[in-house]
Amino acid sequence: MLTIALPKGALLKDSIRSLKAVGLDFSGFLDSNNRQLQMLDESGRARGLLVRALDVPVYVEYGQAQLGIVGYDVLREKHPNVAQVADLGFGGCRLSVAVKASSPYRSPLDLPIHGRVASKFVTCARDYFRSLDLPVEIVPLYGSVELGPITGMSEAIVDLVSTGRTLKENGLIEIEVLFESTARLVAHPLSYRLNHDGLEEIVDRLRSRCNPVGVS
Amino acid sequence: MLTIALPKGALLKDSIRSLKAVGLDFSGFLDSNNRQLQMLDESGRARGLLVRALDVPVYVEYGQAQLGIVGYDVLREKHPNVAQVADLGFGGCRLSVAVKASSPYRSPLDLPIHGRVASKFVTCARDYFRSLDLPVEIVPLYGSVELGPITGMSEAIVDLVSTGRTLKENGLIEIEVLFESTARLVAHPLSYRLNHDGLEEIVDRLRSRCNPVGVS
Fold this sequence. Notes:
The structure is a homodimer of 216-residue chains. By secondary structure, chain A is of the alpha/beta class.
């Protein structure tokens, strides 16, 4: 049976809506009383797994799920061995460099050499500053990255921005966008190639509702 | 001014109680309406930072906080460069290997060679299985690790257990304890050595309420 890994959190509602539009109903996961992490779709054709966004590509990479929905930011940070088969269009945000509005920095190249940059996106931040040939120390944080500049621990942060409200509330401003992110449909490469469980048909139907990757 | 990093989540209430007993009151962080991540103690002598448990040792290592409270499990997993100065005694739990109750495995050495072990504690899990000379693949997960054996992705998990309720609800049993964990008081090594901001006095008073590390 086809298994689809769905991300908890911000992308869940739109993920469920997209799947519903192609005939797979996992809306039970949205029920506030739901404690189940696995659920059959109402037609009994597919199984949904409700996991942390960062875990979606793990389940797909190991073939425990043949399909998954996850933000492009996660794919860029973790480089999982999964096939990115469609841009689902929703969940738009961007990975940006931000600094204190009161700082003198208005571009990443203004940052001091060997300065510090706090981020949950350690790989993306490191790759980006390497591409600038600017040696900085990346400070790995797991939450509330905006505290980095506020406490003086770091000169800048690299973090996801959607509305920009968190930055504003904390006196920070964006000075550069690393990349834009949206929700992506990913597939287990071998299952997709062998078209297990009618995978291709579901991918095609989800794709026709949105943009195939590269054509967006 | 002395800054103390406090962990969000399970250890927060007892952390605040411990500090209150030595005259530092951060109970404002427990107010359900609180959105502040920084707060002065009522006497104005110290500042509290409310951060993710995994971030506590980062703030202390970088000297942004001179003291922090964090679970021993985080110290074992991340090996931060901080001084562990007291065992605060609360927050007891253990890092354990667990498998499906219906599986044939009753000891880690029963696990198949090149089997899979899902864990949030990748370093601890890898070190432990290396010490057994049992080659396994560690699958890094961020949440709901119990899904590993349930979905068949892994034969076992390495995860924190406190009451054991989550394991039981998911049909899993503990087959080995890697180590026991409690909340620890950690200090920025140089600040502690130089006794910045009367650090030693506060550490001594917290210690006298509980057990210095190594004497517990």
